[in-house]
Input
Amino acid sequence: MPGKHFFEYAIIRLVPKVEREEFMNVGVILFCKNAGYLKCKFHLDMEKVAVFCKEILEEDIQNNLNAFQKICAGSSDGGPVAQWEKADRFRWLTAQRSASIQTSRPHNGFSDNLDETLEKIYREQVL
Output
């Protein structure tokens, strides 16, 4: 498949009360090793969040999503994990964990345009 990029992605989920295991999709992370591509995109709808949990603070959620974004982007202020190779950062960000920000298991596919694919998945799964 010339011109096609093999990619992996996961849906980023907000789990307001981890013990209840209820979640809402708030973002997407997409990785392609051969293209050196790792990006994520979020949308936080606090009205929708309030349906799940009135006690959760928007600032706390935003801080967690910002940390996720910094690691994904490899930001210098993203801590030690942000300095890892892209593949390792993707694996770390999508590892199973018991936290308020979690991801689905990774899925894969092929794409001619990774930015467009990220947008498409974002529109379908988050908005």
The longest strand covers residues 5-14. The chain has four helices and five strands.
